[in-house]
Amino acid sequence: MNMNMLAMKPSSLPRQIIRDAQSAPRYGFVRKMAAMGLMAGVLALGSSLAVRADEVAKTFTVSGHAKVRVETDDGAVRVSTGDIKQVEIRVVYSGYKLDKDLRVSTEQSGDSVTVVAKTSGGSFWNWGVRHTSLRVEVHMPKDADLYVRSGDGSVEADSINGNVDVTTGDGSITVQGAKGNIRFHTGDGSIEARGLDGTVDASSGDGHINVEGRFDGLNIKTGDGSVTARAGAGSKMQSSWTIHTGDGSVDLEIPGDLQANIDASTNDGHISLGLPVTVEGTFSSSQIHGKLNGGGQQLTIRTGDGSIHLNRS
Fold it and tell me: Does 72 lie in the same domain as 31?
């Protein structure tokens, strides 16, 4: 980006725009107004680019298994990890006034660290356009638990050796690596999570869900979107597994030695099996009940509109 744009003045406007405005016939009121509107738009663009980002930064030292809690009502959250013994926090913002329409608080109690970034609805306006942004960045130990709540914003996290609980009202969730009790929920957005190990509960009001890992428990639900789940070697059903989508296909891969009672059905689609299932009771192209490797915990798969594919991982 040309940095001269950041402090654009009328004298630096494109010459063609100025010539067009100056050469407009005196009797051409509409054309003059159009040229003035174009000039105002360029000025607004220059002012919007000039909004400067500020930040609040804090660092906390921890000694054991860290517990990190992040709360924001309107902002994205980015979490990275490393072989460190501290929690580094950066709240990056623009268009807000700290301690007026944006309040940031941090707190530590032992190995627990909390950061809260809340807005009060005020914002910077320029030429009728709102220019605000808020992002919470956390760099923390891999050996930690993570709890995130965002009212509106995407959440990204990676390489966490601990429990993960992430909720956003509106935004996608992307996680690469988590171990323990794992919960994801978004009101409107997709979920992409890989390298998981443990019990997984993932839900979206509207969006596709894609999870991969070694699962002890699996519960997936989306109101509208496809579901892809790949259960790797060592996965076991310590309790029942459930996959449900209101509208979308389901692709499930499981280990060949997994024991389960299969209950799968679709209202509008077909079921394909890539591993042997002993059928019991009802069987059709859209509904199946049966046992896998002699049976075990219940594996329920439902879709309102879409096909179901069950294969060996």
Answer: no
